[in-house]
Design a protein that fits this description.
alpha/beta; six-stranded mixed sheet; globular; binds zinc ion
Amino acid sequence: MEKVIVFATDLHGEIYQYEKVFEVAAGKNVKALVIGGDIGPFLSVIGDIAGYQKDFISSYLIPRLKDFQKKTPKDVFLMMGNDDLKMNMEALEKGEKEGTFKIINQKVYPLGGKYIAGYSFVNEAPILIKDWEKSESLIEDDLERLSDKSDPRKTIYSMHAPPIGTNLDIIFSGDHVGSRAVREFIEKKQPYLTLHGHIHESPRMSGSWKDIIGETISVNPGKGSILVFGLNDLNIMEVMTV
Ligand SMILES: [Zn+2]
């Protein structure tokens, strides 16, 4: 049976959506679960958002992932996105130290004969939290370094920012706001597959959760949707809307 990978992004602390993701990821033929950033509750101008996010990580995410691993052991990879406060990294690392999952930002791990790599940073935009924002030229440098750690043609990259000028980076106004450096990285290195998020509404705006850059397939399933794809056969690829 072809092994599949389950990918979800921008879950923003919504437990109903997480539970759906765990349900799908518990499937027998699922090799791994990848969570692509913006894991904690939305930024709010009211209240202690850092505390909410920390609570979410410590009281729900880590224990729930532990429970998930106990029932159906899988590889689990996750990373923060631009809405996740970096100050809570320690809370997240606690789960990693317990062996529940791997944090993949700027790291590469083997995955069933291929590799999975992650990149949390997004290009500059008028967003409130700046913890995971960088200039295009710094993103370019980071991605170049990341690509030295594995053969990009055998690597699945989970990059929170989508490539610019694609179906994956269109906001409500119709503007493309993705990253130039991410796009150039894909053009140059032609990864096996790239997974994105960040622009929640893009699949609805463009009418597609997928795009092709050279020979590389790039996907942004959109907020709260679940992507399932074949680890060795990318003809197997579907998005389930929760
Ligand atoms: Zn988001």
